[in-house]
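Handoff note, outgoing to incoming analyst
You'll be picking up this chain. Sequence as last confirmed:
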Amino acid sequence: MSSEQVEALVVGGGQAGLAMSEHLSECGVPHVVLERNRIAERWRSERWDSLVANGPAWHDRFPGLEFPDVAPGDFASKEQVANYFEAYAEKIAAPVRTGVEVTSVRRHEGRPGFRVETSDGALDARYVIAATGPFQRPVIPPIVPADAGPVQLHSSGYRNPGQLPEGAVLVVGAGSSGVQIAEELRRSGREVYLSVGPHDRPPRSYRDRDFCWWLGVLGKWDAETPPAGAEHVTIAVSGARGGHTVDFRALAGLGITLVGMTGAYADGKLSFATDLAKNIAAGDENYLALLDEADAYVARNGLDLPEEPSARELGPDPACVTDPVLELDLAAAGVTSIVWATGFAVDYSWLQVDAFDENGRPKHRRGVSVEPGVYFIGLPWLARRGSSFIWGVWHDAKFVADHVAIQRGYQSQPSTAASQRSGARE
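Most recent structure output, in case you need it:
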């Protein structure tokens, strides 16, 4: 049975898929982008209502288009980000087909390319680029049984405080999502417990420059691997309410009870590790180290940036840090909801090729898979620290598209015998 033939198939119509489409077009590679929902769907339906981008509009965008309705130093709302990508797709005339889910990709036997099954029929593709990103399967640790009492949901399912039943809320995870959700809940009048693990805590801005700028000029966006032992450390930063530095002491000052890493559950009680003070101190150390590097950069380059000594004033640890809660009886504390801001796992069950390690993680170098003809884009640390950010994925996509174009060039070369015959005729 015949099926549609495509040269390159991009799976996913979010920021990674659109960046890939632009660069494939620039390289002259015919392609199709398949998106199972709408363009940038996760920004619309898998984020809380008040979410804004964590980077300012001058930074968190593609080079070819500015946000039309956001000042450069402001933080775009999730709807503005989704609209931006829809406009970008139109601008580059991306060949996106929405509402089409890819259900399986298998390598052809005895000939190049892949058989692709979709909800809209089958097609054959010479190259497949997985652009589904890192936020595919929400991870909720199997700690608290589903029938324990509190409503449990992942941060991707949280929308606003009114969604949750009355009562206190435990938020597990102190990255960007966890701290923003915890603060929103507290400001709505809820009693909130926030479970804090290891984290980086950069300044939102310092000496009149956003932290995105500092990470750029200090070369940190280009780091190729995370520091040893920090592979899974989250970044606590926020663009909410105009953007501000995440300060766990300030969160405690709002009335949020900070606790350590969430441990075991038994008999209605949840235990927490004794690592809270250590995690807060390590976050402070990371914060102050960046200020030191920024100061050194200013001095080395003779920049006229205002000094900011108040940025180093941390204040005393709150009581919940010096005398931490190590066990919480959820019912007695009135906890009726648990929000798990515990990240995501990838899900490549549809990509049935030999491109993964024993843990299901893609094996690749800068997005070029060990499986010839298969590529990955949009993953954290794909090529550098900035790879999963909007601007970073655009630059990674250029490298991947160039590789596809180079491989196409090899495939189009005539055989040695044909070249010799052509030379003899000349």
